[in-house]
Amino acid sequence: MNVTTKQAPNEILTASESSAPLGPSDAARSDDAGAEPPLPALLPDRSMSASTATATARQARKPKVRRLLTKKKCRSIVATAFLVPIIGLSVGLVASPSASAAQTASSAHAAGAPGAGGGGSNARSGPAAGGSSGTVTSVSKSGFTMTTSAGQKVTVDEASSTKYKKGSNSLSASAIKKGTHVLVLGTVSSTTIKATQVIVQTGSGSAASTAATVVPFQKGAPTTSKQVGQIPTSYTEGSGTIQSGTTATKATEAALAAYPGGVVDRVVKLSNGEYEVHAIGVNWPHHIFVNQDFKVVGAE
Predict the structure, then answer these.
(1) Which of 86, 166, 233, 259 lies 20 to 30 A from 132 at CA?
(2) Kind of pairing, strands 128-139 and 143-147?
């Protein structure tokens, strides 16, 4: 006769089963139970092994881990979304000064303005041979200032190599006094000239009939648009090769004798062999054309 003993709900063992020796699987359950505390809430009955319970517990923990990872991703997305406008604002602030500088440079290049290209022709990247003429207004140890017949102020920097002349006679630097009318040749950068030659002129300037046609520069005034004489048919603004030395000197002298008042900031040789002398500091003319014999043939 078998006697039954109630061990737990849904579990009935016979006396012979309760007194039977433990099998390998039962021994494993005992060892596992000693290694890791049982999880009653996850074990519906003792028929489930401890290893299965452990796996079930780990599965139960995964949603929590996933939730943590999801929260971290959300934080990263929010942080990135917050940083994008800030980065854009920073780039905008960096770009703004550049844009402002470009606009200022564009405004400064109004036709005839000192340092301007007179409508953008023959743009250059550095100083070039040229010159100007005018009346000395002040003298210093390093040079002097003068004002052209069109009212443009010019600064002249002298050096130990600067030569002074009056006609065919050589002079010393002391001959340059306030009120002296001079023609200055050298390297021009805007309205500053590093003088190589200073030529004292008699009278008050050019006696050429064309001198009266020069239109002084006035800020905000529209550029005078007209052509006189012969304009090379092949001429386009920005074309030609910048000249220096004797060629630039002769072309500058010829241009300023016919149209004084401006500052010649470069001389360009054109494809037909003639020269375009570029003047700033006046509203007209900006381009004075000189032939191979260094005679003025046209202007615009």
Answers:
(1) 233
(2) antiparallel
Closest CA to 13 of 23, 21, 3, 22: 3
Which stretch of 41-45, 104-108, 215-219 has the lowest confidence by average pLDDT? 104-108
In total, how many domains does the chain have?
Answer: 2
In a domain, 255, yes or no: yes
Is residue 1 situated within a structural domain?
A: no
Do 229 and 182 belong together in one domain? Answer: yes
Kindly compute the dihedral angle of the four CA atoms of residues 65, 67, 68, 70, in this order, to the nearest 10 degrees: 120
Closest CA to 258 of 277, 239, 238, 233: 277
Domain that holds residue 195: 128-299
Q: What is the pLDDT of residues 158-197, one digit of tens each?
A: 999 999 999 999 999 999 999 999 999 999 999 999 999 9
Same domain, 152 and 186: yes
DSSP letter assigned to residue 142: S
* Residue 280 pLDDT greater than 50, yes or no: yes
Separation CA 154–CA 70 (nearest Å): 72
50-108 and 24-35 helices cross at what angle (nearest 10)? 50
122 lies in a domain?
A: no
Of the chain, the percentage scoring pLDDT greater than 70 comes to 57
Q: 104 and 139: one domain? A: no
Residues β-bridged to residue 184: 132, 198
- pTM exceeds 0.85, yes or no: no
**Helix, strand, or coil (residue 92):** helix
Express each pLDDT in 88-131 by its tens digit.
444 444 444 434 433 333 333 444 556 544 433 344 558 999 99
241 found inside a domain = yes
Phi, psi dihedral angles at 135 (to 5 degrees) = -105, 130
Are 152 and 217 part of one and the same domain?
Answer: yes
